[in-house]
Specification:
Length: about 70
Amino acid sequence: MSSRFKVRAYCSSRSCEYIHKEDIVQALNYETSYGIAEMLNEADSKPSCPACGEEISYYAHTVIDEPWLP
């Protein structure tokens, strides 16, 4: 099974549906991508959403290239 672990960004406002279309970071494993997302979310200065101006938030994301089959 082959997987890719990434960090992606989205708007933290509940009323905005903006999601950054490209991956922010590609990591070695899920733990690393989660740690990077957590570090970016705890940063004092964050970029603002281009759609509404609220802060951007980050989350870990995994892409499974070959899903497990029974």
